[in-house]
Design brief:
The protein is α/β, with parallel strands linked by helices. It is built from 10 helices and 14 strands. The strands form 2 sheets. Strands 1, 4, 5, 6, 9, 10, 11, 12, 13 and 14 form a 10-stranded mixed sheet that branches. A 4-stranded mixed sheet has the order 3-2-7-8.
């Protein structure tokens, strides 16, 4: 049985640091560094899970170009199964230009490329069988990933006894909570950051975001809070965990790293509290340098530092 099947975008990140302002048209501006990394929500989650040592598959499209081929090789080296990462014959691999400020926060310009053409409604049942967790990312970014399509796929996953996790992107088109409702109805673990929660609910306080979203999902909702950690509701009780005290230099992919760590806990049979603790640990490694997965240790290394946690 495979631990996790991941859906979501696969992107080339071009990371530019440190940037506080853009140069006027026609002028040059020298910066500290430009680096390149495999990224995208789906790519990050799969890569971090691979580094943790879980069995993981990534499904979707890569471009039939040099970047796509390099990413396929990189994912294979990370022990990510790419059997169902299909080559699109004409579209390019997705690409993002990310500007990093001095505190590690980012601004992003992107093109979806081949990611935009992957249709969840065409996923065969065989892909969903014998999976512990189905992880879905990139809603509000990929046009084929509608609430209806995700909800239908999650319902099929539940028929095969898989758990479902959902994390989203910024709702820049203001599609709103009604767009997500069919997906939330089939989501076991919904992970979003506070800004995304504000976009969906109009609420600023994490407790208010959780209370507003609770009627729309039968599962657990976790709100990530950056350097303040994360929180969730269990019944009427609000639980919170602090982030690890590290110096953040690049927050790109931190949320995806949290998702991967959280999933690792769920796959291992841990509680939401222990799984969220793993999520905070893994995201702390992500923010200390460029890219989301490069510094991720093995799950056995992490759990040795957390009494009572062992890989089942």
């Amino acid at each position: 049985m495979t631990d996790v099947l991941c859906f979501g975008n696969l992107q080339l990140d071009v990371l530019c640091s440190t940037i506080t302002t853009l140069p006027p048209p026609g002028e040059l501006h020298n910066i500290d560094a430009i680096s390149f990394s495999l990224s995208g929500n789906g790519g990050n989650v799969a890569a971090v899970l691979g580094r943790l040592g879980l069995t993981v598959e990534l499904a979707g499209y890569s471009g039939a170009d040099i970047i796509g081929e390099q990413f396929r090789a990189t994912l294979s080296e990370l022990r990510v199964d790419i059997t169902n990462l299909l080559r699109h014959p004409t579209a390019s691999t997705g690409t993002s230009i990310i500007t990093l400020s001095a505190d590690g926060e980012r601004s992003v310009f992107f093109v979806n490329g081949a990611n935009a053409l992957f249709d969840l409604n065409t996923v065969p049942d065989e892909w969903l069988q014998d999976k512990r967790v189905i992880s879905m990312s990139s809603l509000f970014v990929l046009p084929q990933f509608s609430g209806e399509a995700v909800g239908a796929l999650f319902a099929r996953a539940h028929a095969f006894d898989a758990a479902t996790t959902l994390n989203i992107c910024s709702d820049t088109q203001k599609q709103g909570l009604s767009f997500l409702q069919p997906a939330l109805a089939e989501t076991d673990f919904f992970i979003l950051n506070a800004h995304e929660g504000w976009q969906l609910t109009g609420k600023r306080r994490p407790a208010d975001i959780l209370a507003h979203l609770a009627p729309y999902t039968h599962g657990t909702i976790i709100v990530t809070l950056g350097e303040e950690g994360c929180c969730w509701l269990d019944g009427n009780t609000l639980y919170s965990l602090p982030a690890l005290p590290v110096k953040a230099t690049d927050c790109t992919g931190a949320g995806d790293a949290f998702v991967a760590g959280f999933i690792a806990g769920i796959v291992s049979g841990e509680s939401v509290y222990a799984s969220a603790t793993l999520g905070c640990q893994v995201s702390a490694f992500a923010v200390t340098g460029p890219g989301a997965y490069q510094r991720t240790p093995s799950l056995s290394t992490l759990t040795r530092t957390m009494p009572g946690m062992e890989r089942k």
